[in-house]
Task: structure prediction
Amino acid sequence: MDEWLQNLVRLWTRFRDREDPVKDFAKFYADPVSINGVASTIEQLVARARALNAGLSDLESEVLQVVQGAGAVDGDGAVALAFVMRGTHTGPYPTPLGIIPPTGRSVAIRTIDVLTLSRGRVSAIWVNADDLGLLRQLEAVVQGSPEADARKESL
Result:
C-alpha cells in the first residue's frame, strides 16, 4: 500500500512529466469517482491536476499520516491520508474566491483525504483542504486589523 499511495500522490505532483495523464489517472481512480459527494470523471480529475500544476510549480507532497481501514491492503476499504503539499505560486490559481494571479510566494496546502477503494481504485474521496490557510498565504484573505484592512481595500 505504501508504494501505491506514493504513486497516487505523484500523479498530482509530477503531472508535467506525464505523456498520457488520463491513462495514468485511470490506473488509480474509478470513472467516475465521487469527490465530496459529486461524481467526477477522470478527465475532470486531470483538469484539476493540470490547474494545480499550472498555478503551483516545484510541487512536493509530504505524507504526515496514513490510517488504513480493513481491506485497504487488498484494494477494498478505506484509507485516510493527511498530507501537506508545498509549491511556489507561479501561475493563475483557482480558489473558492476565484482565480488568484501569481504571487511568487511559497505555499503549503494542508489536506486530509479519506479514500474509498474498490477493486484497487479510488471510487470516492472526502477532501478537507485548508483553503483559508492557502488564501491567507497568498494574501487573498487578510485578518482584520487596520493594516490588513488597508491592504484588503487595495486588492
User: Anything to note?
Assistant: Residues 55 and 91 are 4 Å apart (CA to CA). The chain has a mean pLDDT of 91.
